[in-house]
Automatic annotation (TrEMBL), chain A:
This is 3-isopropylmalate dehydratase large subunit. It comes from Pseudidiomarina sediminum. GO terms for molecular function: 3-isopropylmalate dehydratase activity; 4 iron, 4 sulfur cluster binding; metal ion binding. The keyword Amino-acid biosynthesis applies. Residues 7-457 form the Aconitase/3-isopropylmalate dehydratase large subunit alpha/beta/alpha domain. Keywords: 4Fe-4S, Amino-acid biosynthesis, Branched-chain amino acid biosynthesis, Iron, Iron-sulfur, Leucine biosynthesis, Lyase, Metal-binding. It comes from the Bacteria. Belongs to the aconitase/IPM isomerase family. LeuC type 1 subfamily. Its cofactor is [4Fe-4S] cluster.
UniProtKB/TrEMBL annotation, chain B:
Catalyzes the isomerization between 2-isopropylmalate and 3-isopropylmalate, via the formation of 2-isopropylmaleate. This is 3-isopropylmalate dehydratase small subunit. One of its GO terms (molecular function) is 3-isopropylmalate dehydratase activity. Keywords: Amino-acid biosynthesis, Branched-chain amino acid biosynthesis, Leucine biosynthesis, Lyase. It comes from the Bacteria. It comes from Pseudidiomarina sediminum. It catalyses: (2R,3S)-3-isopropylmalate = (2S)-2-isopropylmalate. CDD domains: IPMI_Swivel. InterPro entries: 3-IsopropMal_deHydase_ssu, Aconitase/3IPM_dehydase_swvl, AconitaseA/IPMdHydase_ssu_swvl, IPMI_Swivel, LeuD.
């Protein structure tokens, strides 16, 4: 019987069998950031261990930094201490660090692909759940805890138990108004936040094949929101042409050799998935979350759900609780609710393609009086490019705050916090209670919908809702 | 040593999808050591906006003082990979979390911190939640038998993989285990360099 892409990558990285269920897997590349690494370095210290291969790890500063300026003390003393700990640890263990002022600094999941570090067939880990993003390249990439960060630093391996495999197939062509974010939100709505637990998900089908790399990254990024270990998309010409010429991508003869091997990285025709979900692309409409879990999602044009409409008692109870937290009334149109904050950014939607989509909606308009809107590019490179393309000017002229790269309001560890009871349309990936600030109300949506909400000041009535497509 | 992995009192937090942002909110992730997280456990639920304990929250009830087993719902520990979540639970005093299911990364983080994630089926979960709400709520965990033993002698089965069970029963150093395979790791790296030389990390000129 044939093998799935996941099984192939797993097999290729098996270093040793530890016991009946557990293998030691080789880890090709490791990203670290300031928040989940200090205790791992402390552990190495305590045990007198070294980092096995310092250049197989890259550190960046993203979670805890200010995005108002590029100063190490920009987000206060406590954050500064954590950033300085990262600087110290990287110096001591000789790990390359993209410091806050480095020209390539950015959100960990934006810079890996941007630099060509993320390549097909690799195993990639990071102490961050959205490491699944890198799966867009056909790399097996997943988030780990701090003890595992220490393990990878010391040994360049991780003990792993084989996951089950799921195929999510999006057939046919997407309507013009539907973005990758809408697709993944719709998929999560279908599968649920725990539906992927224990699985590695491979995305396939025409709609996925026709996406560019940045859209594919949006898809794989949110795979963790259905509980799956990793998301994968088999590499193809789109992947190769994205990679070619990037700083860490192979060149010359090695490029040819690499592409030849990468072409083998696909699920065999006779391979079996443990589960398959098929969705018709044409049925997907622009999405927005209404609750406090990414699975609590609806079409933007629909009305707020009535808890009674859910089949399971548990879902009903969750809906009642979520609607109360979100301050929404069942059966009302979302357009009736004013928006206080709009955040365009995060490792889900802060790449150049996302900013172009948002800017296309914003162009020539003004942010509504009562809305505070910010755009936080995913990396210094995205920021420079957006400035060169004139996107920054469009945002600034409209009244958006144009920020330095970082995680910012996605997790609100710095001063970019949504105040209690305020309603925020966010292009990030989690709408959990308190994620963007205590009692903050988060609606997850695409860059185009977020931009539109900023302009209208309401959960909006832009052409995207009526299906006329993006400008 | 007692035959039990742990004996103690339990309390129920019958909520599904408890995410790691709830277990420990981001403002407490700024530390650089592994301790000091216990007081921030379930912060937004446990304290009111002015910082005083919320009397309605289960952990603040006088009868739950000294509690060491948490019985929750399904998909416990979803969301962020922060290991601060099991650190906070353990430092508060929890030794065992019983749930209908666990998110993968959280589960692994528990094992790595000797916090037992005990997965039970729906009927058992209901039974345990009920038990916590009414009875004297003492229980014991028989890890070898994979059973939760209630004060009245009832036994409830839980799931855990045999590997993870071994690891909780014996004090094992995961890095040490991998280090026993250093030769294999070296060999792997040499072979890799031959077959896929572009995969060798080039390092970063910073
Ligand atoms: S942008 Fe948000 S989700 Fe992404 S790495 Fe940063 S904090 Fe995590």
């Amino acid at each position: 019987m044939g093998m799935t892409l996941y099984e192939k990558i797993y097999q290729q990285h098996k270093v040793a069998t530890l016991n009946e269920h557990t293998d030691l897997l080789y880890i090709d590349f490791h990203f670290i950031h300031e928040v989940t690494s200090p205790q791992a370095f402390a552990g190495l210290h305590e045990a007198g261990r070294r980092v096995r291969n310092p250049v197989a790890t890259l550190a960046t500063m993203d979670h805890n930094i200010s995005t108002q300026n590029r100063r190490i003390d920009g987000a206060g003393e406590i954050s500064q201490q954590q950033l300085e700990a990262l600087q110290r640890n990287c110096r001591e263990f000789q790990i390359p660090l993209l410091d806050i002022t480095h020209r390539d600094q950015g959100i960990v999941h934006v810079i890996g692909p941007e630099q060509g570090i993320t390549q097909p067939g690799m195993t990639i880990v990071c102490g961050d759940s959205h490491t699944s993003t890198h799966g867009a390249f056909g790399a097996l990439a997943f988030g780990i805890g701090t003890s595992e960060v220490e393990h990878v630093l010391a040994t360049q391996t991780l003990p792993q138990q084989r996951a089950k495999s799921m195929c999510v197939q999006i057939d046919g062509h997407l309507p013009a108004s539907v973005s990758a974010k809408d697709v993944i939100l719709a998929v999560i709505g279908r599968i649920g936040t725990a539906g992927g637990t224990g699985y590695v998900v491979e995305y396939c089908g025409e709609a996925i094949r026709s996406m560019d790399m940045e859209e594919r990254m949006t898809i794989c990024n949110m795979t963790i929101e259905m509980g799956a270990k990793a998301g994968l998309i088999a590499p193809d010409e789109v992947t190769f042409s994205y990679l070619q010429g990037r700083p860490k991508a192979p060149t010359g003869e090695q490029w040819q050799q690499a592409v030849r091997q990468w072409r083998q990285l696909k699920t065999d025709a006779d391979a079996k998935f443990d589960k398959t979900v098929v969705i018709a692309a044409r049925d997907i409409r622009p999405q927005i979350t209404w609750g406090t879990s990414p699975e609590q999602v609806m079409a933007l044009a629909d009305r707020v759900p009535d808890p009674a409409q859910f089949k399971e008692v548990e879902q009903q109870q969750n809906a009642v609780k979520a609607l109360e937290y979100m301050g929404l009334i069942p059966n009302t149109p979302l357009q009736d609710y004013p928006v206080d904050v709009v955040f365009i950014g995060s490792c889900t939607n802060s790449r150049i393609v996302d900013l172009r989509q948002a800017a296309a909606v914003v162009k020539g308009s003004r942010v509504a009086e009562h809305v505070r809107a910010l755009v936080v590019p995913g990396s210094a490179q995205v920021k420079r490019q957006a400035e060169q393309e004139g996107l920054a000017d469009i945002f600034k002229a409209a009244g958006f705050e144009w920020r330095e790269p970082g995680c910012s309001m996605c997790l609100a560890m710095n001063d970019d916090i949504v105040l209690p009871g305020k309603r925020c349309v966010s292009t990030s990936n989690r709408n959990f209670e308190g994620r963007q600030g205590r009692a903050a109300r988060t609606h997850l949506a695409s860059p185009a919908i977020a931009a539109s909400a900023a302009i209208h000041g309401y959960l909006s009535s832009h052409p995207i809702m009526t299906g006329e497509g993006l400008v | 040593m007692s035959q039990f992995f742990h004996q103690g009192s339990a309390c129920a937090l019958p909520v599904n999808h408890v995410d790691t942002d709830q277990i420990i909110p981001k403002q407490f992730l700024t530390g650089t050591t592994r301790d000091g997280f216990g007081d921030a456990l379930f912060f937004d639920w446990r304290y009111t906006e002015d910082g005083t304990p919320n009397p309605d929250f289960v952990l603040n009830k006088p009868e739950n003082k000294g509690v060491s087993v948490l019985v929750s719902g399904h998909n416990f520990g979803c969301g962020s990979s922060r290991e601060h979540a099991p650190w906070a639970l353990a430092q508060f005093g929890f030794k065992v979390v019983i749930a209908g299911s666990f998110a993968d990364i959280f589960y692994r983080n528990c094992i790595n911190n000797k916090l037992l994630p005990a997965q039970v089926d729906e009927a058992a979960l209901q039974q345990l939640q009920h038990y916590c709400a009414t009875a004297g709520n003492q229980l014991a965990i028989d890890l070898a038998q994979q059973q939760i033993v209630l004060a009245d002698g009832r036994r409830i089965a839980f799931n855990i993989s045999s590997t993870d069970r071994e690891q909780l029963m014996n004090d094992c150093d995961f890095i040490g285990i991998a280090e026993q395979h250093l030769d294999a790791i070296d060999r792997y790296e040499t072979e890799r360099a031959g077959q896929a030389p572009w995969m060798l990390p080039k390092g970063y000129c910073v």
